[in-house]
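To make this tangible, we now present a fold written out as C-alpha cells:
***
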Amino acid sequence: MTKKGILNLLSHHHSNDDNDHHDSHHDHHHHHRFLSMLLPRHHHTQDHLDHNHKVHNHDHAVDDDDHQHRHGMKSILSHLHLHLHPHHHRHHHRHHHDDLTTEQSVSATVMEENINVAEPIVLKWDDNTSPYAKITWLFSDDRAEAHQFLRAVAELQAAMLFFVSSEHGGASVSRSHSLARAQTLMQTAMRRLEREFYQILSANRDRLDPESISTQSSNSSVSVASDGGDDADEELRAAGDFISEVENTSALAMTDLRDIADAMISAGYGKECVQIYRVIRKSIVDEGLYRLGFENHAPNQIQKLEWEALDLKIRSWTSVAKVAVKTLFSGERILCDHVFGGSEPIRESCFADVARDAAVQFLGFAESVTRTKRSPEKLFRMLELYDTISDLCSDIATIFSFESTAAVRSQAITSLQKLSETTRSTLNDFESTIQKDASKIPPPGAGIHPLTSSATIYITSLADYEAPLAEILEEGAIQTQTSAFYSDGTVSSPSTASFSSNEGIRSTMAARLARLLLVLICKLDSKAGIYKEGSMTYLFLANNLWFISRKVKESKLGFILGEEWVAQQAATARQHAGNYQRAAWGRTTAVAAAAEGVAGAEEAWEKVRAFNVAFEETMRSQGECVIADAELREEVRASIAGSIVPGYRILYDKCCEAREPAMSVARYYSPDDVWIRVSGLFENLTGLGHGSFKVSPRAR
C-alpha cells in the first residue's frame, strides 16, 4: 500500500458519498482495488483482486512487498476472516442476515475503538504537534512504548483493512470517515518510523559496522574466563564487558531496524524505508573500502601509474581483499538479510544497491592491472591477485548469490580470466627475452652470467606461486573456476580442492618451468662460444649449470621438477668441470703423471723443472678463473690437486734424495706449495653476475 494510492482512494470515496446509490458497482470495484493493496498476496481472495494499482514503478521488489503483512498481521486477518467474507454465508443462509448485520456493527465498534486507542499513542510521537517528540527518540527511551507504538500501527492497519471492505462498516460516509482517520494516523506513524529508522542507522554507524556484524554472526556471545582477581584478569573482564555491551547494543539496533522495516513494508511504506537504508549503508560500504586503502581509479589512470606506485597499490589490494570480502561485504549482507528478512525481493534489491557497484569496482581493480604494459616483474603481482581472488571465490559466490548481484560474480570471473591470459602472455614474453638476449660481454673468469642468475631466480620464484600458476597453465582451469560460481552444490576454491588431487596440473606447470630452464641452458650453450679458450668455455658451462641445479634444488621448484632433474643437471655441470680440468691442467697433469716411469735423479730433475714451468703458466692463465659455488669449487680444487700433487711429490722426493749440490730444490715449488697454490684458486668472486629480471617480494 502506498500513500498516494490511499489518498486517491479516499478522494474517490468522498466523491462517491454523494452518488452512493447510483454508483454502487463502481464503488464496489474500487473497494476491491484497495483490498488488493492491503491483503497479503497469498490470501485466498487474491484471484478476485485487481493488481494494477501500483503507483511507484521504479522498484518492483519493494512494490511487491509493500503489500505484504508481517506475521502478526496475518493472525489478525485470520481472526477477521468471517467479517471480511460474509457473502459466502449470505448466499446460502439469508435468514441469518440480521445476525450478521449485528456482528458487523459490533466489529465496526471494535475497530473504531482500536483507532481511538492508537490515536494518542501515534500523536504523542508526531513531531509536528508534540515538542516532546522533537527531542526524544522512541526506540532509545522506552522500549515498551516502542513496542506499543508498533502494535498501534498494526491495529490501524487492521482497521483500515476492515473499513475498506464494501461489505463492512455501515454507511459509506461513516466508513470513509473512519478509513480517512486511520489513514491520517498511519501517515503520521510512518513519518515517525522513518525518522526512527534513520536515527538508528545513523547513531549506530560504528556499532553496525560490517566488521562487528560479521564477528557477531560467527560468535553469538563473548566470554572472558578468569579464575583470579589480579589486574590482568580485571582488565580482561572489563574488556569482555565492553565488547558484550557493544554487541548487545548493535544486536538491539538490528532488532529495532527489523521491527520498523517489517511495519513500514507491511503498511506499504517500504520504499521510504529502503531509500533511507540504501543511502546510509552505501556510504558506509564506500567509506569502509576507503579506510582499507582502496581508491577507485579509472583503468586509464591505472595505466599511467609508474610501476613502483602500481606495485604499492597491488600489494595494498591483496593485503585487504580478504577483509573487504569476508568482513565488509559479508557483514553488509548479514545486516541486510536481518533487517529485511521478511521480504526476499526487498533484501535482494537493497543489498544489490548497497554493495554491488562497490564490489564490482573493487574486484575490477585486478582487471585494470592486466591492461597495463606487460613486464616480467609484474608477473608475481598478477599471480598474487589471481591467488587472492581465487581463494575468495567461495565467499564471493555465497555473499553475492542473488541474481541482481551477478555482476559481482561476473567481474570476479573476468578478472581471473584476464589475469590468466596476462600471466601466460608474460611467461611467453619472458621466454622470448631469454632467447633474444644479445649480450656479448663474457663474465669475468667464466663466472655466472647475469642472464643465468636473474632468469634462474625468476623461474625458481615462480614455484612459490604453485597453486595459482598451476591453475593458469592447466587448460580448462578457468572453466573449473567459473563453475564454482554457478554450481548448485557447495562452492569450493579450485586452489584448495581440485589442485590438491590433480597431479596433472602440477605436471603441466613442471613442464612449463622446465621448458624455461631448457631455453636458458640452450642460450648459455651459445654464449659459451664467446670465450676463445676451450677451457674457459667448459668452466663457464660448469659454473652456470651448477648454479641452476643448486638454485632449483634449494627452492620449491626442485620438488616440482624432481630429484632426477636436479641430479642430471648437477652431473652435466661436473662433466663440464672435468672437461675444464683436462683442457686447462692437462699439460701439468701429464708431467706429474710421468713420475712413476722416472728412473734416475737427472730425469727427475728435468721433470721437476718441466712441472714447475707448466704449473706456473697454468696458474697465470687460470688465476682469474672463478667457481662461484663453494661445493663445486672444493671438488675441482681437490680433483686438480689429486691429479698433480702425488706425482709431483714423487719427483720432488727423488730430487731431494740425490743431494746433488748443483741442483737445489729450494728453487722449485714443494708439493705442499703446489697444494697451497691450488687451494687458493677460483676465489675471485667478481665473476658473479646480476641480471635484469627483478623479483618482487610477496605482498603477504
User: Anything to note?
Assistant: The two ends are 53 Å apart (CA to CA). The chain has a mean pLDDT of 77. The chain has three domains: 3-203, 205-221+235-253+270-419, 582-687.
